[in-house]
Amino acid sequence: MSVKNVGVIGLGVIGKPIALRLIQGGYQVAVYDVRPEPVAELAKAGATACKSSADVAGRSELIISLVHDSAQTDDVVCGPQGIIHSLKPGTLFATGSTLGPEPVQRVAKLLAERGCATLDMPITGGYIAAYEGKLALMIGGDEATLARALPAFYTFASVIIRAGDIGAGQVAKLAHQLVMGMNVMALLEGLALGKAGGVEPAVLTQILKDGLANSTVLQVWGELGPRWKGMLKAAPPGAELPNLRKDMHSALELARKLGVDLKIGDHASRVADSGSATGHDDPAL
User: Fold this and answer.
1) Cα angle, residue 196 at apex, residues 192 and 199 outer, rounded to 5°
2) What CATH code would you report for 5-165?
């Protein structure tokens, strides 16, 4: 049986539009974020405003967590106000955060002991696709659990692919992010080369779109290119890594654990961290 009551925890650039899409899809949606502003905004749109993750869990058959990292996910699940304190048996938990396979497998085991199933649900597509309901999901988890959640997921996603068991979605997402990060940097370098040789960036961009070098990254460069470039800028020592660089680091950490030698990925990550991968193409892009 599919779910009717959905909770969304973490109302950032992806979480807020996902909650809106669920509301528009006719679901009863409970929301929580550490910031009151997005909670209040979504309450005006028809959501139930909650004061904690536990409050969300008490109202939900499906809980979608969209927080930043593993530490925040652990707090959502088993912190002082975590969902574990008010979960009802049979509740589904889906984490859309990019955590790596081990943290999500640990959470799944903990929740299984309470009679609750977990779906590993990394997301790609960006905030524009989120508002349009065109996100792509890489799912780790069993097919029966996914079947219960699918109608809700299709309110905000147009592509949903089961990668395998719990953790497989995380592996797929990290592989995706590594390739995407290298794609962004390759495009920056190609534009820099073209500009230095006298080819206007707009002309070269069109040539790339019409050739084998075309990519989704290139297609959405006008909207998302500045954001990605911002993630690649040099940062002070000890500063929190932007998502793109964080995910590349996580992919390489997983590769080391698995004994996979990623020479190009390792070099690309170091270039990204140096801050030298951006700023060489047309600033208008």
Assistant:
1) 90
2) 3.40.50.720
- Look at 103-107, 235-239, 251-255 and tell me which has the smallest mean pLDDT: 235-239
Sequence ranges of the domains in the chain: 5-165, 171-274
Best CA proximity match to 54, nearest among 32, 74, 37: 32
Q: How many CB atoms lie under 10 A from the CB of residue 264?
A: 9
Question: 171-274 belongs to which homologous superfamily?
Answer: N-(1-d-carboxylethyl)-l-norvaline Dehydrogenase; domain 2 (1.10.1040.10)
pTM of the entire predicted model: 0.90
**Which tens digit of pLDDT belongs to each residue from 101-137?**
999 999 999 999 999 999 999 999 888 899 999 999 9
- The pLDDT tens digits for 151-178 are 999 999 999 999 999 999 999 999 999 9
